Amino acid sequence: MSSNAPRHTALDALHRSLGATMTDFAGWDMPLRYGSERDEHLAVRTKAGLFDLSHMGEITVTGPQAAALLNHALVGNIATVGVGRARYTMICQEDGGILDDLIVYRLADDEAGSPHYMVVANASNAQVVLDALTERAAGFDAEVRDDRDAYALIAVQGPESPGILKAVTDADLDGLKYYAGLPGTVAGVPALIARTGYTGEDGFELFVAPADAEKVWQALTDAGTPAGLVPCGLSCRDTLRLEAGMPLYGHELTTSLTPFDAGLGRVVKFEKDGDFVGRAALEAAAARAGQNPPRVLVGLIAEGRRVPRAGFSVVAGGEVIGEVTSGAPSPTLGRPIAMAYVDAAHAAPGTTGVGVDIRGSHEPYEVVALPFYKRQK
Fold this sequence. Notes:
Blueprint: E1 7-8, H1 12-17, E2 21-25, E3 28-33, H2 37-46, E4 48-52, E5 57-62, H3 66-73, E6 86-92, E7 98-107, E8 116-121, H4 126-136, E9 143-146, E10 152-157, H5 161-166, E11 181-186, E12 189-194, E13 203-208, H6 213-224, E14 229-231, H7 234-243, H8 279-291, E15 295-302, E16 313-316, E17 319-330, E18 335-343, E19 354-358, E20 361-368
Parallel strand pairs: 1-3, 4-14
Antiparallel strand pairs: 2-3, 4-10, 5-8, 5-9, 6-7, 7-8, 10-13, 11-12, 12-13, 15-18, 15-20, 16-17, 16-19, 17-18, 19-20
């Protein structure tokens, strides 16, 4: 087997038995869709969907100075994350460019009483994040461990997901807040149960041993099918997160952008103790963003039917004023939508006269505030 052959998750055979269309994603063979992308998308919005996310990269950070290391290595204040909680954050270069966006979970302290964190990186950046954390750990009494092979990750997302998961777990889901995680059992096997997701809906992400993944998937399928649960691929995950205005690394987030450029400056915590990688560059970026941001991330809704794609130019008055970062048909809105970085002068919601250059034709779009879709709590 050559080193560039795609990796397979623990659920690979199951996906194939369900007739999934598979695709290479970040070096993994992943299900793109099982049937209709639109049906999968709408199931998550109205009932529930089941996702295999085992391509995500888990990195464990432990030791007496684990919190200090993460505060130094990441832009967020990880030292203030309580046991059982999670935080969305980023890891940046010295020049402020985004290496990846992350979720950091604080698990129960280890036997020695030291804090125990799990950092979850995007599949395409897992090695980059692991290397950066390992390098930044120099001088800290902390251990960085590659745990990518220790976990399979299954997500159940959508309004019916709490009821479905309750049928197969002993955990107190009612007490589990958004961005919190607790150990429990699912289908009788140990799991970290997190109330997180990337769809804009309520839902859960379940970290389990790869050997247990099929059992958990099957139990959720059995419990959820009467409620309308369907298996979902990466394609509808992308349209769901786009409607919810959630950034995707490599599209809205890159090393050439700072968190402030991406409109996510709130994740940078200058008030935390000590220096952190990228602080000086990010302070300068924050000052620039406050005065005159070069370009602003906005939503665009099509007036017509043609779908914009990443890299297409945004135009106004015959000038290029920006670039599409993500675009797709929106099953919820019934029209094509996009996220794009545009010049600040054209960024106000309601701005018209903006178009997207789709193969030489300037298709009309309206600028709207993100997100396109927000669930009713």
